[in-house]
């Protein structure tokens, strides 16, 4: 092992400490995906329990909206106050989130549930993955096979989180549907356990904020409002349409806020998002591919579970059991990334992920309740897992080499969470508008509109990946470079920066 993957990093006193560190990071990834998906099998049960049937879309979107809109800020805070410290803060917030969500059963408050999902669970999780990924990027050698393996192991916990999050709520509510709050109480318990492991085994923060960065309050206001407002307006449009004037106001002002955020970040001395990230079009294209691909993934999951629970009449337990293959094939996909990335390079792996997102949605679009589970539902779930579990580790490996500290994890997690929430709103709005024009359509045809939208979004991710592969063939650059040099090169000349950017493209 030592010959192939190198030695244990010096920050770990022993191999056991490194294993526990990887366990802590993997659990955090599991909790992230678990929080995203744990409402899927409770899609009908929770609104009935809270006497609310008009906001099912927000059960999933409220979490991903808050997480995706705040991750850049929480990663920035990790760079300033310490990565490990911010991870611990995230666990505390997430623990309270699970409790607040569960207690909404007694208050019968839909708003309490959504606030718990967004302002506590979503915000808390936004501290976890980016800062832990920042620690991985800091402690493991750039481009090393050991680092590839660690990130792939972390990525393998994503399908486990998704599968467990759909299965355990079904187990908890199988004998008594009123037990659904325990799906969230148990989440809080897991947060407590992982918080202890992080405190005990994650290396302590060192050389914290040696550049004397300060929190960019204006950037936080413009950035978070711009991202959250734009996302909120589309998800609320799926509920109320665009007839509500407040929704149009939020959409317009959020776009203005994002424009102001962009120009503010270019001028400020303490940017949340390093302008060099935006200036490198290869990095931007990877982020856009992630955004679109995971948008397709979110739409597919949403309509898949509507199909299971409403059209097929499955219980929460049966719906959860149907997703177990996702974890098995997802782990296979994640662990294959180190070798695939050497054969196809990262852009080739992202293209394979795009095929996974598209292929899964394509299988679902042909489903019919008269068909057996093994015909298309099983096949689609297996294919879809490759979309999710090739894209996350492949992009994380590249960006953790390209971008120092917590920024790489922040950007990857922002795109995945934000893409799910944004495209879920856009897809739901499109489905409802099209279905409204065809009143004679049954539920199956309505759900197929959602799957068609997911197919189109997945194809877009494939096209963007192909464009980047062609670009790489046309403009090849040889050699190897410690790519973080680019992000630590403020005093270099423009010619030197251009040369470093060319070297960066060898890794992408």
Task: Report a brief summary of the structure.
This protein has helices at 2-5, 15-37, 45-49, 57-81, 83-107, 110-126, 128-139, 145-174, 181-201, 217-240, 245-267, 275-279, 281-311, 316-321, 324-365, 377-402, 407-436, 443-474, 484-487, 494-507. It is mainly alpha-helical.
Write a structural description.
By secondary structure, this protein is mostly helical. It folds into two domains: 13-204 and 270-474, Up-down Bundle (Growth Hormone, Chain: A); 216-269, no CATH class. It is 79% helix and 0% strand. The protein is built from 20 helices and no strands. It has helices spanning 2-5, 15-37, 45-49, 57-81, 83-107, 110-126, 128-139, 145-174, 181-201, 217-240, 245-267, 275-279, 281-311, 316-321, 324-365, 377-402, 407-436, 443-474, 484-487, 494-507. Helix 13 (281-311) packs antiparallel against helix 18. The protein is globular and about 60 Å long.
